[in-house]
Design brief:
Elements (H helix, E strand, L loop, with lengths): L1 E2 L1 H11 L5 H11 L4 H9 L15 E2 L5 H15 L2 E4 L8 H6 L11 E4 L9 H10 L1 E2 L2 H8 L2
Helix pairs in contact: 1-2, 2-3
């Protein structure tokens, strides 16, 4: 099926109301060809949704708490303190929209450990986002039904 970015964000917000950026990031990821809805549904079942972001000698240990929930905190930490190495990352793709919006670099967000910070010089997703805004996004029917039933 095809869905607008607003439709995706609306359903995602119903599934995971906090943080408010999770729904917007879900729609962004779907528009760019990433599994935003699938990751959101996985994270929704998590009991643990927060961790103290206290750096140690190796960076930040996210303790496998989903970036669906930690994304805004991590982005704020990087904005304040600069580039940092992240480890025990779960659902790191949810940091991509935040890093693009802040014009900061990101390592490989599907790895369980990567760096976030530094400077980004271009937005490689702008064309995909413009196309999605005009034409909608192809969404897996089964995933759509799963999120609709929440």
């Amino acid at each position: 099926m095809r869905a607008s970015l607003n439709q995706i964000a609306s359903l995602a917000e119903r599934a995971v109301p906090e943080p408010t950026s999770a729904a917007r990031n879900c729609a962004w990821l779907e528009a760019c060809g990433y599994p935003g809805i699938r990751l959101l549904l996985e994270a929704r079942g998590d009991e643990r949704r927060s961790v103290d972001l206290v750096p140690d000698a190796m960076g930040l240990d996210l303790q496998n708490v989903s970036c669906v929930f930690l994304g805004p905190q991590i982005a704020a930490h990087v904005a304040k303190h600069g580039r940092i190495f992240l480890r025990n990352v779960r659902h790191g793709l949810y940091l991509v929209p935040l890093s693009v919006a802040a014009n900061i670099g990101i390592g490989c967000p599907v790895d369980p450990a990567f760096a976030l910070g530094g400077e980004r010089h271009k937005n490689p997703y702008s064309e995909k986002l413009e196309l999605a805004a005009r034409e909608g996004v192809a969404v897996d029917d089964e995933l759509w039904r799963a999120v609709e039933q929440i």
